[in-house]
Amino acid sequence: MRDRSVPVRGVLAAREMAMGPAATLTRLRHWHLKKDDDGIAWLILDRAGENANTLSEEVMRELDTMLAEIAGLGVKGLVLRSAKTGGFAAGADIRDFRGVADVAEIEARMRGAHDIVDRLAALRIPTVAVVHGHCLGGGLELALACRHRIAVDGASFGFPEVLLGLHPGLGGTFRLPTLIDPIEAMTMMLTGRSVHAAKARRLGLVDAVVEERHVAHAVGAAISGGLKRAGRGWMSPAFALGAARRLAGKRMRAEAEKQAPAEHYPAPYRLISLWEEHGSDKKAMQPAEIRSFAELLAGKTAQNLIRVFFLREGLKALGKGDSRIDHVHVIGAGTMGGDIAAWCAARGLTVTLADLDRKALGKAIGRASSFYDKRLHSGIARRDALDRLMPDLGGDGAARADIVIEAIAEDAEIKKKVFASLATVMKPDAILATNTSSIPLETLREGLALPDRLVGVHFFNPVTRMELVEIVAHDQASPETLARARAFCGRIDRLPAPVRSSPGFLVNRALTPYLSEAFVMLDEGMRKETIDQAARDFGMPMGPIELADQVGLDIGLHVAEMLKRSLADPLPDIPDWLRQKVAKGELGRKTGKGLYAYDKDGKPVKAEAPAPDADLADRLVMPMLNTCVRLLREGVVADADTLDGAMIFATGFAPFRGGPIHYARERGIEEVVAALSRLEAVHGARFRPDEGWRDLAKPGPALA
C-alpha cells in the first residue's frame, strides 16, 4: 500500500528518474555505466544491499575502474547520478574507519580516495552531477569534482562532518571555497547545516535547478556548453590575501567557540586554520586537508562522536516497521501537546488536536504556523502541514485516530478519567499513548478496559528539537502495541528508546539527581552562573540551572516529589524556594522568569560570576552516572548503549564523551567509584556508589 503522505507526483517522479538509456554497457556491484545515442556516458551509483548511497572503499575502487573505462570510450560527456530515490549520496561510509586510530593508515587510505576524485576532476570532457534528494559530505565532494551540478527541485547539500568531530576530507576544503563565496563555504562546513536547492543556486553551488522531467534537457545543455556556470560573488577575490582570511578566521573562531569549545571540539578550529594558511593554494591545501582529517579521525573526540552516530543508527533501527498510523489525535493543546501535534503534521500525518480551551488551541496552531515558516522550505509544504493539523474542540478525532496521545496535566487521576472516556470511542486497533513524564503506567492502567493497547510515548521539550522519545512498556502492553509505537517514532523521524515502566522512567530519573545537586549548591550560596559554567566546561550544552528553567520548574518539582515518594534513591530534600517559585508562577523560560530572568528573545539574563573549581563538575555529574548504573542494574533499560543514546539525544549529555556509561568506562570504573566515595565522605549517602558498578567493571562488547 502506498504511503499516503507522499504525493502521487512524487511516486511517479521516482519511477521516471532520468537514468540514460535502458541498456547497460558495464555493470559492477555498485556502479552501472551506460552510453546513450548522443554519445553521453551515464554513470549510475546504486550501492548494493543499502537503502542509501555511501562512499565505501569498495564503491571508490569501482569508481576508479569505471573512470578508466570512460576515458577510453570517446564520449562527449559524463553524467553522474544516483539510482536511489532518497538522494545522491549520504557521504563516506564511516564503518570503514570504525576503530581505526593509526594516522598513517588513515592518510594512506585518504590519499588513494583523493587520487580517484582527482581523476574525475581531470577528465577533459564535460562532467555533470545530477543531484536529487540529499547530497552530503563525500557525496557532495564527488559532485564538486564535476564541472557542472544540476539540482532536481527539493535537493539539499551539506557537509555534516563537523558533527562527527571532523571536517571535509575528500577535497571539500579547497573545492567549495573556490566555487562559491568563501565565507558561505566556510559557514556550510563549520555549521554542518544543509542548504536547499534554491539557495544552492543563489550561492553558485549548482548551475541549475530543474524538475525531474527536465533533467535530460538540462544535461544536454550542460554537455553542449549551453549551461552557464554560476559566479562566486563580489567579495571572493579579497580572500586570496592571507591577511583577509586571518581577519575573517578570527571572527569564525569567536562564533565557533559559542557552540563548540575548542577544548572539546577541535575540528572547526583545524578547518579555520587550514583555510587561513592554505586558502589560496590548492596544492598545499590538499595534503594539509588529508593530514588534518587523519589526525582528527584518530582522536578521541571523533571516535566518540562516531560512536554517537552508531548509537543513533541503533535507535533508529528500533523504529523500523509499519506503524499502521496515519491519523494522530492529541489531547491537550499546551506546549507539549501542541508541539507534538505540529511535528506529526509536519511529518505527513493527519492530526486532530483536542482541547476544551479555544485560546489554547489558537495558540498551538499559531506556534505550529511559526514553526512551519522557519523549518519547511516551500509554501506548498507549509500549507499542506497546516491543512493536516486540525483543531478539534469537540474531541471527535479520537474515534478516527490510529493513535491517541494524551498530553494533559501530570495528574494520575485526571489522566485515568480521560482514558476511561476514550476507551468507549477509540477504534479497536487504535493505540492509547500517554506522554506522562514520570507516572508509572501500572498506576495509569488501573481500571482501564484496554491495558494491552496502553503505552508510554514520552517526548521531550522542545519537541521540535529533541530527537528522543521514550517508549514505556508495562507487563500488560502487547508486543504489537510496543512495536507499532516504536515504528510510529520512526515514521515521524524520532528515535525510540524502549524503557520499562518505573517512576521517572530513564531520562528523568537520571536527570533529577543532577538537577537536585545543583539546587543544593544554590542553597550553599554558590552562584547559578558558576554552577552552569561547571557543567558547560564538562561539555553539557547548557548548565543544570538553565536546563531546569528550560524543562519547567513545575515539571521538575513534580518529578522530584514523585521520585522522593516512590523510590529509595537517596535524593536531597526539595528546597522550599522551589515550591514557592512554582506557586508564584515563576516556572522558567516558558513564563519569562524562573531561576533566571529571560529577555524578549527567551535568553537567560546572566551576570558575571566566579569561575568554577576544577572538581565542581564531578559533584554534578557523578550522581547522574550513579543513577544510570542503578537503572541498568534494575533493568529499567536493557543495555548501556540504549542508555547512552537516550541521555545524549534527550538531555544533550556531552556528545564528545560518547554517553555517560561510555564516559565512565573511558575514565575508568575504579576512578569513578573512587570519586563517588570521596564525594560521599564530604556530602553524604546520596553519593554512595551503587552496587551495579561491580557488574559494569566486567568487560563487555563496545559499540564503536
Automatic annotation (TrEMBL):
Family according to the record: In the N-terminal section; belongs to the enoyl-CoA hydratase/isomerase family.
Catalytic activity annotation: a (3S)-3-hydroxyacyl-CoA + NAD(+) = a 3-oxoacyl-CoA + NADH + H(+)
Protein's GO biological process: fatty acid beta-oxidation
Name of the top EC class for this enzyme: lyase
The 3-hydroxyacyl-CoA dehydrogenase C-terminal domain, residue ranges: 504-598
Name of this protein: enoyl-CoA hydratase
InterPro entries: 3-OHacyl-CoA_DH_CS, 3-OHacyl-CoA_DH_NAD-bd, 3HC_DH_C, 6-PGluconate_DH-like_C_sf, 6PGD_dom2, ClpP/crotonase-like_dom_sf, Enoyl-CoA_hydra/iso, FA_oxidation_alpha_subunit
Assigned EC number: 4.2.1.17
GO MF annotation, one: enoyl-CoA hydratase activity
Pfam families documented for this protein: 3HCDH (PF00725), 3HCDH_N (PF02737), ECH_1 (PF00378)
PANTHER family: TRIFUNCTIONAL ENZYME SUBUNIT ALPHA, TRIFUNCTIONAL ENZYME SUBUNIT ALPHA, MITOCHONDRIAL
Span of domain 3-hydroxyacyl-CoA dehydrogenase NAD binding: 327-499
SUPFAM superfamilies on file: 6-phosphogluconate dehydrogenase C-terminal domain-like, ClpP/crotonase, NAD(P)-binding Rossmann-fold domains
Organism: Phreatobacter stygius
Pathway annotation: Lipid metabolism; fatty acid beta-oxidation
